[in-house]
């Protein structure tokens, strides 16, 4: 279930928000530690001051201007929140929220890489929260 999130004091001119959540200590059995994408959300309207617990998968219920919000694919290749099954404790979860000067048009398959490429040149502000498991 996606956790509750809140944000405040958006930069002037913010037209949308985008969020990337990843386990930055995820082990790769074939190599070094590689961040594991848990959740990607884009085109969050600046009128929303947060996302409630369990929001993932329910964005279509917003309707109106908020209907542009889109959940992208995580590293399990499915849209929405996919919290990891922890093989060990001590993992750091990074929540990166971008305040943007425009909405993003990423097509039907939104991914972290597409989002990070699209936000270049459009970031008015960024907030990072690290949570430990």
List the helices and strands and how they pair.
Layout: E1 5-6, E2 16-23, E3 36-44, E4 50-51, E5 70-71, E6 92-100, H1 112-119, E7 123-132
Antiparallel strand pairs: 1-4, 2-3, 2-6, 3-5, 6-7
Tally the beta strands.
Answer: 7
The largest beta-sheet arranges its strands as 5-3-2-6-7
**Gap between N and C termini:** 15 Å
- Tell me the series of helices and strands, N- to C-terminal: EEEEEEHE
Low-confidence stretches: none
DSSP summary: helix tally: 1
The helix content is under 10%
Radius of gyration: 14 Å
Biased composition (Basic and acidic residues): 58-79
Organism: Anisodus acutangulus
Protein name: Phosphatidylethanolamine-binding protein
Region (Disordered): 52-85
Overview features:
single chain; Phosphatidylethanolamine-binding protein; five-stranded antiparallel sheet; 32% strand; mainly beta; 133 residues; YbhB_YbcL/LppC-like; PEBP; PEBP-like_sf
Task: Please provide a written account of the structure.
It contains one helix and seven strands. The chain has 133 residues and is mostly beta strands. A five-stranded antiparallel β-sheet has the order 5-3-2-6-7, with helices on one face. A two-stranded antiparallel sheet has the order 1-4. The two termini are 15 Å apart.
């Amino acid at each position: 279930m996606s956790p509750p999130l809140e944000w405040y004091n958006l930069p002037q001119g913010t037209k949308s928000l985008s969020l990337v959540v990843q386990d930055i200590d995820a082990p790769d059995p074939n190599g070094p530690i590689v961040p594991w994408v848990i959740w990607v959300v884009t085109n969050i309207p600046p009128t929303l001051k947060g996302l409630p617990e369990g929001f993932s998968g329910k964005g279509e219920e917003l309707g109106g201007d908020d209907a542009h919000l889109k959940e992208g694919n995580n590293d399990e290749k499915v849209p929405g929140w996919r919290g990891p099954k922890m093989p060990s404790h001590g993992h750091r979860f990074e929540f990166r929220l971008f305040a943007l000067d425009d909405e993003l048009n990423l097509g039907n398959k939104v991914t972290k890489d597409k989002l990070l490429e699209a936000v270049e040149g459009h970031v008015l502000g960024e907030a990072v929260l690290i949570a430990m498991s």
